[in-house]
Amino acid sequence: MAINKPSGLLVHRSAIDRHETRFALQLLRDQLGQRVYPVHRLDKPTSGALLFALDPDSARALSQAMEEQRVQKTYLAVVRGYAEPAGLIDHPLTEELDKYSDHKARQNKPAQAAVTRYQCLATRELDVAIETYPQSRYSLVQCQPQTGRKHQIRRHMKHIGHPIIGDAKHGRGRHNRYFKDHLGAGRLLLHAASLQLQHPLSRQPLQITAPLDQTLHALLQGFQWLDAIPRQWHHSLSTHGDGPGPANPDQ
Q1: Is residue 245 one of the residues assigned to a domain?
Q2: Is 248 contained in some domain?
Q3: What is the CATH number of the domain that holds 134?
Q4: String of DSSP letters for the chain
Q5: pLDDT digit of tens for each residue in the chain (251 aa)?
């Protein structure tokens, strides 16, 4: 079972957010009336395709496929600056431990291999001074992580000088605030757009697509970036002519 997780929803209960009462796992379990098993995770502020299994054997098979890099994950991100047309980020990452949920984890573990492929799909320059330059530049990038480290895409994009907009931990505060206050985009601009995998029982290829939410669709529409992505990634309401209005990046 695949869902399109909204930004701001936790996958399951976590000590990090003790006051949260809504979780993707419990919502899906209650909707289906049976137990579900998360196969992977998405950060709370990340939206997009999230896969669950309906039995333990399928969960183990899918988790193994993830570990063996037999599942292709494709993300969209809006980043600061003009990214290179394409690239491979091969930068090992030390594990980011949370003081609440990872207090029993091994400390000072060596850095683990982490690889992300990316492609720049579109760019935009705004006539607004946010930091030291009179204009501000942004890119729409497609990322395909080859490994599954915590916050991998967010940390890798920061590593090459193109932090994701809306990333409170790895991004740039002034740009994050501008997108929130002037463009109506106050969330992490990272979206898991698709999963390509083999069904664990039938072995048939599956492609799962998670359309953009209204916030991301409106931003890409305002930046004239929608033509840079597949039509099936557009917000679902847009096909009926009643999708969100465009953000105006020049105001």
Answers
A1: no
A2: no
A3: 3.30.2350.10
A4: -EEEEPTT-BSS--GGGTT---BHHHHHHHHHTS--EE-S---TT-EEEEEEESSHHHHHHHHHHHHTT-SEEEEEEEEES---SEEEEE--B-----TTTSTTSPSSPPPB--EEEEEEEEEEEES--SSSSSSEEEEEEEEEESS--TTHHHHHHHHTT-PBTT-TTTS-HHHHHHHHHHHS--S--EEEEEEEEE-TTT--EEEEE----HHHHHHHHHTT-GGGS-GGGS-GGGGGT--PPPP-TT-
A5: 999 999 999 998 765 666 666 899 999 999 999 999 999 999 999 999 999 999 999 999 999 999 999 999 999 999 999 999 999 999 999 987 555 455 455 557 789 999 999 999 999 999 999 988 899 999 999 999 999 999 999 999 999 999 999 999 999 899 999 999 999 999 999 999 999 999 988 999 999 999 999 999 999 999 999 999 999 999 876 443 333 344 444 43
What is the total count of domains within the chain? 1
Catalytic residues: 43
Domain of 75?
Answer: 2-99+109-238
171 within 8 A of 158, measured Cβ to Cβ: yes
Q: Whole-prediction pTM value?
A: 0.88
